[in-house]
Amino acid sequence: MPSEFELISRFFSRPTRQAVLGPGDDCALLAPSAGMHLVITTDMLVEGTHFLPGTDPWQLGWKVLAVSLSDLAAMGAEPRWALLAASLPEACEAWLAPFAEGLFSCAGRYGVDLVGGDTTRGPLNLSLTALGEVPAGTALRRDRALPGDDLWVSGQPGLAALGLAQLQGRTKLPAALAERCLAALQQPLPRVELGRLLRGLASAAIDVSDGLLADLGHILERSAVAAEVFVAQLPALPAGVDPVLARQCQLAGGDDYELLFSACPETRNEVVELGKQLDLPLWRCGRLTASDSHRLALLDANGRELTINRKGFDHFG
Ligand code: ADP
Ligand code: MG
């Protein structure tokens, strides 16, 4: 069995391109760029809580980085560095090799250097710290949304939650849809390019990790506004799946890693153009209103209000 140090050097020490000093010393050395703010986030993935036992190691490696890059994207940041703290039940090379491949694939795709971490024995638990940079004063925050702003969401929220329902045997999706949903769940694509281009355009942003309505709630609270969400302007529900489940997943499922953002109506065309440029659908799905009640109203195509439960709602209009 490889020692801790062999394991680190074999699987987690790859040449860095943007660190003064990467893995191997007591600390990494990084040179932040002039005029930039550092943007830092940590996320922990615990087996049994955040992913099912037996999850494919390549996809887990991808996802452990991707979820943190999604947080950076939601701030409009450029991803640059990452640190991985891993608690592993055993030094199983057949697991570690694909896990590292998935991690470094995601790192390569988004231009991130793994500059350090910690490796210890214990229950499978992966904690990743991602660092990015944003020009000082331009970070997208949750607390800058204004009454009158449009509300937008990227991509197709709900697919990942449908993928989880499929894995747990709660639904039986048609094959092609199942494949899309499982990809959304297991290999999410953080919206880094979108976040970067939303700097100076969006008034507030958040990534959808806990469900669209729940995450919208954070913007409302932090910005002291209320919202109307137009269900009919969200992406059409996928065919071949129970519409009640699909709607619940869309509004309250987790693990989407899409961006939910607000922007003033004068910039509508710019946002539409951005979606075209990125080949990423952007849905104008609501608007913010002046009220510090943080109230969230869900409206059907006729403007009738739908009832929302804490994690979903029970009437589809
Ligand atoms: P120390 O005991 O001084 O904290 P460690 O023995 O934990 O150092 O780690 C040795 C080096 O390997 C450090 O540079 C650390 O950042 C790096 N490292 C440890 N685990 C990982 C990992 N999972 N991924 C990347 N680098 C790692
Ligand atoms: Mg250590």
TrEMBL record:
Function: Catalyzes the ATP-dependent phosphorylation of thiamine-monophosphate (TMP) to form thiamine-pyrophosphate (TPP), the active form of vitamin B1.
Protein name from the UniProt record: Thiamine-monophosphate kinase
GO process terms (BP): thiamine biosynthetic process; thiamine diphosphate biosynthetic process
UniProt key word Metal-binding: yes
Binding positions for Mg(2+) 4 per the UniProt entry: D26, T41, D71
Binding site for Mg(2+) 2: D43, D71
Alphabetically ordered keywords of this record: ATP-binding, Kinase, Magnesium, Metal-binding, Nucleotide-binding, Thiamine biosynthesis, Transferase
Gene: thiL
Residue ranges occupied by any PurM-like N-terminal domain in the UniProt entry: 24-134
UniProt-annotated binding residues for substrate: H50, D255, F313
Family statement drawn from the similarity comment of this UniProt entry: Belongs to the thiamine-monophosphate kinase family.
Functional pathway: Cofactor biosynthesis; thiamine diphosphate biosynthesis; thiamine diphosphate from thiamine phosphate: step 1/1
